[in-house]
Amino acid sequence: FYLTPPQVNSILKANEYSFKVPEFDGKNVSSVLGFDSNQLPANAPIEDRRSAATCLQTRGMLLGVFDGHAGCACAQAVSERLFYYIAVSLLPHETLLEIENAVESGRALLPILQWHKHPNDYFSKEASKLYFNSLRTYWQELIDLNSGETTDVKEALVNAFKRLDNDISLEAQVGDPNSFLNYLVLRVAFSGATACVAHVDGVDLHVANTGDSRAVLGVQEEDGSWSAVNLSYDHNAQNEHEVKRVRMEHPKSEEKNVVKQDRLLGLLMPFRAFGDVKFKWSIDLQKRVIESGPDQLNDNEYTKFIPPNYHTPPYLTAEPEVIHHKLRPQDKFLILATDGLWETMHRQDVARIVGEYLTGVHHQQPIAVGGYKVTLGQMHGLLAERRARISSVFEDQNAATHLIRHAVGNNEFGTVDHDRLSKMLSLPEELARMYRDDITIIVVQFNSHVI
Amino acid sequence: AAGMFLRLLSDVRWQAAHPKWRRITCSWRSTSSTAEPAPVPLPAEAQVVICGGGIMGTSVAYHLSKMGWKDVVLLEQGRLAAGTTRFSAGIVSTGRHLSLELKMADYSNKLYQQLEQETGVSTGYVKTGSISLAQTQDRLISLKRIASSLNVMGIPCEIITPKQVAQLHPLINIHDLVGAMYVPEDALVSSANVSLALATAASRNGVQIHERTSVSHVSIQKGRVTGVETDRGQIKCQYFVNCAGQWAYELGHSGKEPVHIPLHACEHFYLLTHPLKEPLASNLPTIVDPDGRIYIRNWQGGILSGGFEKNPKPLFTEGRNQLEIQNLQEDWDHFEPLLSALLRRMPDLEALQIMQLVNCPESFTPDMRCIMGESPTVRGYFVLAGMNSAGISYGGGAGKYLAEWMVNGYPSENVWPLDLKRFGTLQSSRTFLRHRVMEVMPLMCDLKVPRWDFQTGRQLRTSPLYDRLDAQGARWMEKHGFERVKYFVPPGTDLLDLEQSKTFYKPDWFDIVGSEVKCCKEAVCVIDMSSFTKFEISSTGDEALENLQYLFSNDLDVPVGHVVHTGMLNEKGGYENDCSIARLSKRSFFMISPTDQQVHCWAWLKNRLPDDSNLTLEDVTWKYTALNLIGPRAVDVLSELSYAPMTPEHFPSLFCKEMSVGYANGIRVMSITHTGEPGFVLYIPIEYALHVYNEVMNMGQKYGIRNAGYYALRSLRIEKFFAFWGQDLDAFTTPMECGREFQVKLEKGMEFIGQEALLEQKQNGVYKRFTMFILEDHDTDTDLWPWWGEPIFRNGRYVGKTTSSAYSYTLERHVCLGFVHHFDEKTGEELVVTADFINNGDYAIDIAGQRFQAKAKLYPFSSLFAQRRRKDEEELSGYQRE
User: Fold this and answer.
1) Domain named Rhodanese: which ranges (chain B) (predicted)?
2) Is the sign of the CA dihedral B23, B29, B35, B39 positive or negative?
3) What global pTM score does this model have?
């Protein structure tokens, strides 16, 4: 089974999306020029989600990738809801009041977010009312709590993450009279999702991460080369601090079992996540909810299964770690991606590939004559050779697509191999997951002219 | 690296220590070690402040001071000649398409040649000559057209064979050449030194020069320049000249009242090499290989070679405070195609060692022509910038014209093609400029064929019928941002694609336009003419009439409902505008002028109408859609739609009336067509446009109505000997010179602008005469088509140039319009041109070096048309009876 280059391209480009921040009279005054995003499924259906939106009542832009497990329900819910929680957490008291008054009197609501969505990125219509009510309760509490202090972005991010996870948990415990919704909130709570979210406002970049997706900053060094700076820590067994943290939170007697075979309780790869109430609720609560829940839930072996050595829940949290970074002129782009990308490529390579792609220089280094003795003929030969090398790169208009092409198609020499691409993309559904994970990538480009 | 270049390109260094500029020749080293002297304080007041010490600013200062304006201050933010001027390749070439540009370059060349002697500053002037190569026959045609122009200007120039090229230059590979143009008097200069020489001469004449002084903004009061704010204090002044090069756009926008100067800089690359083993002679001709997109000149025993690539890189430095141009990054990969072209042209250079790839900014404008003149909104604010990489070639001439403009009120040549007022605010969006300059820069080397249209920055201004017409096969061109139909491609017709339809010969739309013309002659056509500039002038009392009578040469005190064709003349009697004015009521007038008059005419009227609250001038261009119904059946269509008789008895020619058309009321109908054919123009409030268009098309069906475009209009008006402003008429043409005495009422009982000049011409005769030429031995299918700018020969002697041309489908011949002069055979002095002189001569038109016999006429073939039409009408009515 062989895919032609156009077929490969149509697969790679099916989910690509680009957004350019609109210019004012030819000038872009935002620190974000725009972003490219894309995802390539391995699971059917894909369990990754992505979101991007501009905050309308405060400044800044939100971007996030979400890696779901045990189904896509939780990732889907988080991708729809998290940015609203963040935006609301950032809103000043007056705006919250204004919004609440508008809802109260049935007036039109101030728009909070402007979404930048690919047509395949959907929102659940059925749950919107339920989600809205939870969100409203949250802002009502914020109004009551009015601290009078200006909102700290870091705090807002942490609060939003925790609150949403809490709401997910609560909604599942309370249930819903509508059977469809009832099943939905349970699926959301029993599945899980990691989240890696960036908030960019001028030169202030915050990355809030829960789980093993990753944010990497692309930095152009003075000599033109590219380097990668991590802006998040993976929450998994490879992170000593995380292992230590998880162990600290439980009695000494559990030390061996809390992290086993590099997994939480020997089961879960990420050490932090949304949902996954099986790692958060007490055994009693889990049993009660499942028993009173719909039949589908009872038939599901996974949900009924209680993790072994489950003594002192919760074992899992959605609380993110937030890193603040002040953007510098040399910070050219930010990559948010789920672990599907990082498993296949080193972040240095990722930064280099994206950097070279975005600057349009598809060679390692620009040529400079400097003090060397170079003849016209030698230079001509050199340039011709360089030109021949770049050919394939021009196929992509989207940096995320370009990166996926490399992640899936790179051979041992680090160049894209069409045969490999063709093989990897034509794997049957059931095999695909063995060779690769879902990959979701957002590449945010910064505006060096403004920074 | 920048320091090195200063050393390489200029041997002269300057110091501002002495109040009057003194030349100090010393090596760059000793200068660089000299401590910066304390700056001389700025004067509090000056007549003129020039901003920019590049070739343009110094040239303007030089010429102003020569013409007697000594109270001039020149401010430079960095050092003199340190911007684009410093990096210029220093090629002075006169082979230009536009005769005005050609004259500027020729003047510059002559100025630079004697500049060293005049100033004592070494300018590096070497007369090398230049060779422009043609790799294709079309390119050779293009070069031959330029050669014809150069020859009649008295500039030596010849078309040579590839073999001759090889004799003139030892390194050139001639195998792919079909010919070349050799201009032996073209030259090389050190551009920075030319600029410094001009500055030296200017400063000797009293101009004060201040370096390291940057202008923050220009102060404006009541629409006039009053002073300049700098980082070193204020200078009061009456005139400001913006010669800020690539910064001119920002500087224009820095004040409270923006002055829009549409230009944008692109990176420009050229290569410098070490000397050859046997160093190249310094008088070796410069090579221009437009098909390879490169130029090559000798440089210090080696070569300097750059070009204009297909994928230019616009600069993004706007708004940055950059005192001098830093050498931008070298980009070899970007230069690769140009390097290939260079090695293909001169294969022996393979072993030559590279010194450096220079990247310097060059400013480009939306139409590839430089920007000169006074701001339409701020009096006393002059501009000279946007040289499209020909700053050295134009520097002298452009500076001279601008100085003349400031001192005398107008230059000695018609500079409308370069006038800042050809642009409006609509060309100054940054996005537009970025997109357009990316098209303009490659165009420097592209073949310039007739009827070329820009592809970028389009669909900015459109008629409400745009989509409708587009769906019917309209092909578009653009004027002043407005989309206008060229012609309609009938369904099922395949035209060549754009690239292929570039031709100097018969174009592929020939038959299409022919059938549109036929329909105009025999039935009726609709042309959307919404782009025309439309003003309304009204007053509470008689102010409108009184002022218009003074501003226009024809008598406007006509009964209400009459339309008057009239010139808007300058003091010399020349056409500043040519328009049709309808008297809507006793106190209000509706004025229609060419599309590109929107800014110029507005400024002209604003500056001359009194500041009187009773008098209002309004630009209503956007309020009306104009449909031109041309043809004998227009009468029938309109009378059926309006239930009103439209025959000449009820609706005579040159008449205007508001009436209803279909359901729509208040349509201004005028019995003019701009072509000499019968018909009407409907001025329709835009919300009715679609309705009226639909009604006209439906009703017109039985009369054979169809859409037509501007090419048909053009053919019709040219065969009827109708002159158009901007093409045939300009500020240096009077009504007397183009047979329009009847549009001038010298005895209308009121003084008007230009009256004296016209009276004098009436008594003493004119020195040029607008003439119509019908090409005799020209084969439309196989010969080169005339365009405009072709030299006219009378009895073998050059007498003038054509201004427009078209194929007349009625005469089945090409018609050229142009001006005939009478140069004294011995002295070259201009003599009076009489009708006899025109009529008694054998004429030929030179198209790219080939001369075609032509018959000259001073009046259109009115009798022929009348007969023909009557005959056609008989045929048509006979057909209908059947």
Assistant:
1) 48-88
2) positive
3) 0.70
- Taking the Cβ of residue B104 and every Cβ of chain A, the question of whether any pair is shorter than 8 Å is answered with no
Chain A residues within 8 A of B430 when measuring between CB atoms: 25-27
Distance from CA of A205 to the nearest CA of B (A): 25
A157-197: pLDDT as tens digits: 999 999 999 999 999 999 888 988 999 999 999 999 999 99
Q: What's the 3-state SS for A372-403? A: CCCEHHHHHHHHHHHHHHHHHHHHCCCHHHHH
B416 vs B421: CA distance, rounded Å: 8
Distance CA B444, CA A241 (A): 63
The four Cα atoms A178, A181, A182, A183 give a dihedral, to 10 degrees, of 130
Q: How far apart (Å, rounded) are the C-alpha atoms in residues B625 and B367?
A: 26
**B315 reaches A (C-beta below 8 A):** no
Write out chain B residues lying below 8 Å of A383, CB-based. 332-333, 335-336, 339
**For tokens 């009542």, what's the residue?**
A57
Interchain CB contact of A369 with B (< 8 Å): yes
Note whether A383 contacts B: Cβ–Cβ < 8 A: yes
Query: Are A26 and B333 within 8 A, CB to CB?
Result: no
Q: How far is CA B787 from CA B100, B506, B715, B726, B818, in A?
A: 16, 11, 12, 15, 11
In DSSP terms, which residues pair with A177 in a beta bridge?
none
Chain B residues whose beta carbon lies within 8 Å of the beta carbon of residue A379:
332, 339, 354
- Contact status, residue B734 vs residue B574, Cβ threshold 8 Å: yes
Q: Which helix (H) or strand (E) holds A143?
A: helix A128-144
What tokens does B760 get? 């004098």
Closest CA to A163 of A82, A49, A57: A82
Q: Is A377 on the interface with B (CB under 8 A)?
A: yes
Class of domain A17-347+438-446: alpha beta
Give the pLDDT of residue A365: 55
Tens digits of residue pLDDT in A319-340: 999 999 999 999 999 999 999 9
Please give the full DSSP string across A412-436, using - where no structure is assigned: TTSSB-HHHHHHHHTS-HHHHHHH-
Question: Are B273 and A376 an interchain contact pair (Cβ–Cβ within 8 Å)?
Answer: yes
ipTM over 0.90: no
> Residue B667 forms beta bridges with which residues?
B659
B353 in contact with A, Cβ within 8 Å = yes
Q: Which residues of B touch A368 (CB under 8 A)?
A: 330, 332
Task: Using CB atoms, pick whichever of B350, B433, B434 lies closest to residue A376.
Answer: B350
Q: How far apart (Å, rounded) are the C-alpha atoms in residues B545 and B551?
A: 10
B277 CB within 8 Å of a chain A CB: no
Burial B233-244, CB ≥16 within 10 A → b, else e: eebebbbbbbbb
Residue B536 to residue B544: CA distance in whole angstroms: 10
Delimit the domains of chain A by residue range: 17-347+438-446
Interchain contact, B430 vs A383, CB within 8 Å: no
- Chain B residue with CA closest to A390: the answer is B333
Spell out, as residue ranges, where chain B has pLDDT lower than 50: 1-35, 318-321, 323, 863-864, 866-882
Nearest residue in chain A measured CA to CA from B332: A367
State whether B354 and A369 contact (CB < 8 Å). Answer: yes
Q: Cα separations (Å) of A301 from A182, A266, A298, B112, B415? A: 19, 18, 8, 93, 87
Parallel/antiparallel/unpaired status of strands B563-569 and B664-670: unpaired
Give yes or no for A363 touching B (CB within 8 A): yes
Report how far apart, in Å, the C-alpha atoms of A66 and of each of A46, A52, A164, A206, A212 are. 11, 11, 14, 17, 10
Chain A residue with Cα closest to B333: A383
Q: Please, what are the domains in chain B?
A: 45-364 (3.50.50.60), 533-714 (3.30.1360.120), 766-881 (2.40.30.110)
Spatial neighbors of A250 by CB under 8 A, at least 6 apart, are A258, A311, A312, A315
